[in-house]
């Protein structure tokens, strides 16, 4: 698995990530969702550079222009609900992409340990396509592993998979490198060193789903 950390480069992404993490700015849920969308757009632009292209002739009012356009078939998949704004930002750039949505969550036992449960998966065929699998944060990597396997079970094997997550833990990166096979690129903007006792990223962002859409019961 190749890891590309866009946060290691000086760009406007750093400013957006600073707002995303800032506890005072997080109080504005509209701004929080918008920042996730903008981050999705930045990732989509960078991912687009890796895809297949060919030159096509386009008729303008004054003549013919040869333009290099993307030929790759793209499927954007997102883990509900936290990933929805990120998904929308990616979709702004890959506007002809097919889409998949997966409801995955942590199910805790009495000891405080958890497994990842999938309750819902709607997915088109991904066989031979470019899969972009987005999740707002990757703490342990377990939800991405289970989701990726479910997508492949339902839709086939992608040509290439792009994992997109603004914030990852070191643990998640190492876990995915060991447990998720195939040609895969992980795109992130930050890799944080620490996990809490309950497997939350520190310093992280907080509960992205709650910050974007309000607290759940």
Distance between the termini: 37 Å
SS-derived structural category? alpha/beta
**Unreliable parts:** none
> Which percent range fits the helix content?
25-40%
> Biggest β-sheet, characterized?
8 strands, mixed
The helix count comes to 6
**What is the number of beta strands?**
12
Task: Please state the overall shape, judged from the principal axes of the Cα atoms.
Answer: globular
| CATH top level class name | Alpha Beta
Strand content: 35-45%
Mean pLDDT: 93
- Number of domains as seen in the coordinates: 1
What oligomeric arrangement do these chains adopt?
single chain
Our Rg estimate from Cα atoms comes to: 18 Å
Q: If you consult CATH, what is the topology?
A: Rossmann fold
Based on the coordinates given, report the CATH architecture. 3-Layer(aba) Sandwich
Order of helices and strands: EHHEEEHEEEEHEHEEEH
How does this model look, in words?
This protein is α/β, with parallel strands linked by helices and 217 residues long. It has one domain: Rossmann fold, CATH 3.40.50. It is 32% helix and 35% strand. It is built from 6 helices and 12 strands. The strands form 3 sheets. Strands 1, 4, 5, 6, 7, 8, 9 and 10 form an 8-stranded mixed beta sheet that branches. Strands 2-3 form a two-stranded antiparallel sheet. Strands 11-12 form a two-stranded antiparallel ribbon. Strand 5 and strand 6 form a beta hairpin. Helix 2 crosses helix 3. The termini are far apart.
Brief characterization of the structure:
The chain has 217 residues and is α/β, with parallel strands linked by helices.
């Amino acid at each position: 698995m190749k890891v590309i950390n866009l946060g290691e480069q000086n760009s406007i992404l750093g400013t957006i990530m600073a707002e995303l993490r800032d506890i005072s700015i997080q109080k504005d849920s509209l701004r929080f969702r918008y920042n996730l969308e903008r981050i999705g757009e930045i990732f989509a632009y960078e991912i687009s550079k890796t895809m297949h292209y060919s030159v096509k002739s386009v008729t303008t009012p004054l003549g013919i222009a040869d333009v290099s356009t993307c030929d790759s078939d793209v499927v954007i998949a997102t883990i509900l609900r936290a990933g929805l704004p990120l998904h929308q930002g990616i979709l702004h750039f890959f506007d002809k992409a097919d889409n998949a949505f997966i409801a995955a969550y942590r199910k805790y036992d009495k000891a405080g340990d958890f497994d990842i449960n999938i309750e819902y998966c709607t997915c088109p065929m991904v066989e031979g396509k470019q899969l972009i699998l987005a999740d707002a944060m990757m703490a342990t990597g377990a939800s991405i592993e289970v989701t990726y396997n479910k997508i492949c079970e339902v839709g086939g094997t992608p040509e290439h998979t792009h994992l997109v997550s603004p914030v990852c833990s070191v643990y998640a990166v190492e876990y995915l490198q060991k447990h998720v096979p195939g040609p895969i690129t992980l795109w992130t903007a930050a890799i944080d060193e620490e996990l809490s006792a309950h497997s939350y990223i520190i310093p992280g962002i907080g509960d992205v789903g709650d910050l974007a859409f309000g607290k759940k019961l």
